Amino acid sequence: MNSNLITKEHINELLEIKPAGTLVTSFYLNVDPRHTNPSAYKTVTNSLLRTKLRSLEKEDWSKKQLAAVKEDFEKIEFEVTNSFVPAGKVRGLVIIADGTRDLYLVYRVAQPVKSQVVVDPNPYIRPLVAILDEYHRLMLVLVDKQEARLLEVYMGEVLEHNAYRSDIEGKVRKGGWYGLEERRIERSIKNKVIRHYHTVANALLEHFRMGHFEYLFIGIKAEDYSLFFPLLHSYLQPRVKGRSNLSPKDHINTIIEAALEMERKINEEDDSMILERLIEALHKGGLAAKGIENVLRAIPMGACQALVVDDNYRVPGYICKECSCLDLKAGNCPFCGKETLSVEDVVEEAMEEVLLQRGEIKYITTNHPRLKDIDHIGAFLRYKIEG
User: Fold this and answer.
1) Which of 63, 69, 192, 290 is a Cys-bridge partner for 374, taking CB atoms 3.0 to 4.6 Å apart?
2) Which residues, other chains included, contact 367 with Cβ-Cβ below 8 Å and sequence gap of 6+?
3) pTM for this prediction
4) Nearest to 262 by CA among 379, 164, 135, 129
5) β-bridge pairing 92-98 and 103-109
């Protein structure tokens, strides 16, 4: 499977992969040419895989499991050395492999990823979820009285949709019988402008219904904004995040730069808003929890509506191979008594469980100072949990 844009469907496919006594290799390689020379891909891959294999050999895995992992490593190394060709705006290569179950998925993503290898009973999808969560779909509509451009922006990629032009001709002629002809032409031009704006507004509504964007930015002159905005459907007006002086005639690089800056500001605002909401709920004794222990206790009860996670937070732990219960301590599962398996990052496993329970994940990626107030992880709860 190859894709430049990670979708919710991809994440759902990976969530369907359950622990089965085998080990899944999740390989991430940064192939951003701004930071990594293509000639170094093979060397970096070899070093990552060899270091990981030596680490696994010191752990309590069976010879059969280690042999299967080694085969997966060899297949991944072959992929990077002989099959992978960086092209376009690919910034990250992700491979999920488990030869025991004939599992081999390749994702070429448009954003850089941290080069790493994770071997666990489940696929390590946290970086993919982060990419999906971090980047909003934006629509930039650049409009003036004669033309309009619609540009969909997602994860640094820009897709330009159909352009629109009005049928306004030339400038208003002066004169006529006491200026009547001039006023008539002015009214005709205004009506054509309104029809043009209506056409653009209807096109935006259709793109929104098709899921092409979450937020809308409008590039239009200040004096024309008051005429265009009321023509937007009531669904769209709350999605408008700002107006700029960008025009349909601006260079595409200028447009992309402006769009990414808008996206960055949206992410910062979202992070602050969700943290403030969670901290307020905690202070009021509401439906909220903080800290890894409280979160892990809430998950088996299906109580986590939304998980709020520091992007840099990692904690090793254990997962029950029978019921997927999570714990920070080794030993048999406290719920069903079955054997538990060690995992590199119990936070990753917690996120997967919450997603399977139809909950949401919100990454905080801006090093927000208030992350310490939730001990780097917290949750909005569906209902109160005791203890």
Assistant:
1) 290
2) none
3) 0.62
4) 135
5) antiparallel
